[in-house]
Amino acid sequence: MKSKRIVVTGGPGTGKTVLISSLENDGYHCFHEVIRTMTLDALGDVSLEDQLVNPIDFVKDAKSFNDELINARLKHFENGNNINKKHVFYDRGLPDVIAYMNYFGQSPEPRYADLCSKNRYDEVLILPPWKEIYVQDNERMENFEQACGIHEQLENTYIQLGYKPVEVPFGTIENRLQFVIDHINGASE
Fold it and tell me: Mind giving me the DSSP string for 150-181?
């Protein structure tokens, strides 16, 4: 069975991780975001006062960081081939790397766009910025305005790559989960 690949994206602090966890608890196979662990590793001895906004801003070698990130997401994508489920969810996708690099004024390598065009998701769900639930922490350093800018860049990047992101509306996690389930069941018939 070829699984339908569904990426869940959006700016920081929009509820993606909670939604992914809820989908997983409901029996769906989900690949988790890799950047939180990478961010903690990248922080190392960096003082909280010295941090800028995103690991891309403070890592010693942004190119290596982005290479590691896109390779980790590619590995998730490839591992999706081994999942025998109707739907497979990804907490962020390959295009997110390009979107973040663009937002932070970096030039993505041409191979990143090539990887995105060769490894396509079947569906993109995007969670909009939601000020009422937004919280900064040690791995989410962006303020809400920056999170909104990142959201715009993510949406634009996916659209430029030929996707039509479907917005997951605000609501309780139960309502959001039901929206996603209803959407994928209606979209897959």
Answer: HHHHHHHHHHHTT--PEEPPSS-HHHHHHHHH
d(CA 51, CA 55): 8
d(CA 114, CA 141): 29
Per-block mean pLDDT, blocks of 10 residues, the chain (189 long): 93 91 97 69 48 52 87 96 96 96 91 97 96 70 86 98 97 96 79
Under a CB-based contact definition with an 8 Å cutoff, are residues 5 and 13 in contact? Answer: no
Cβ atoms of residues 181 and 173 within 8 Å: no
Dihedral sign for Cα atoms in the order 8, 178, 165, 154:
negative
Tell me how far apart the alpha carbons of residues 28 and 20 are, in angstroms, rounded to a whole number.
9
Sole residue written with tokens 């309502």? 175
The neighbour count for residue 96, using CB atoms within 10 Å, is: 25
Residues forming beta bridges with residue 91, ordered by sequence position = 8
Rg (CA), the chain: 16
**Is this structure's pTM higher than 0.90?**
no
Other C-beta atoms lying within 10 Å of the C-beta of residue 72: 17
Check: CB of residue 88 under 8 Å from CB of residue 80: yes
φ, ψ for residue 30, nearest 5 deg: -130, 135
Inter-residue contact 91 to 20 (CB < 8 Å): yes
